[in-house]
Amino acid sequence: MEYTLILIIHLLCAIIFIGFIFADVIIFPAVKNKFGQEFHDNMIEAIVGRGLKIYPLIVLILMGTGGYMFSKYINSVAGYFNTSMQILLWIKLFFVILIVLGVIYTMYCKLTKIEPVGFMNYFHTYALILSFLIVIIAKFMFVV
Question: Exposed (0-12), middle (13-18) or buried (19+): which is 127, by Cβ within 10 Å?
Fold first, then answer.
C-alpha cells in the first residue's frame, strides 16, 4: 500500500511537471502567434509567477518519490544490472539527471545573470523529449 501511494504521488507530480513543459513548448508559442507579444508576456508573467511557487516543490517530490521507487528495484539484494528492467531504470535515471543538470544550470545562469550557452535556449524542448522517453521507458520496464 505504501508503494502504491508513493507511485500515485509520483505520477501526479510527473503530470504537472510534463504538463508545464508541454505548455511552454507547444501551447505558449501558439498563444503568442494568435494574440500577440503583449498578451503572451502578461500570460507568461501570471503563469510563471504562480509556477515558481509550486514547481520547485513538485520537482523535489518527483525526485524523492522516484528515488524511493528506484531503491525498491535497484539495491544490494535485488542487484544493479541483473534484469532488463534494472537496465531500463538506469537509462531513465540518466535522462532524469540530464534534466536536473539542465535545471540547475539554468537556475545558476539566472542567479548569476550569466548568459547560458546557445543550445540551452531550447532546454524545455529537450526536457519535454526526455520526459516523453522517461514515460515510455517506465511503461516498457514492466513489459520487457
Answer: buried
What length does the chain have?
144
Question: What pLDDT score was predicted for residue 16?
Answer: 94
Q: Note whether 100 and 63 are within 8 A (CB).
A: yes
Contact between 79 and 31 under an 8 Å Cβ cutoff? The reply is no
Helix, strand, coil % (nearest 5) of the chain?
85, 0, 10
3-state SS assignment for residue 99: helix
Q: How much is the average pLDDT of 117-125?
A: 92
The answer to whether the CB of 16 falls within 8 A of the CB of 58 is: yes
51: cell is 509556477
Distance between CA 54 and CA 89 in Å, rounded? 27
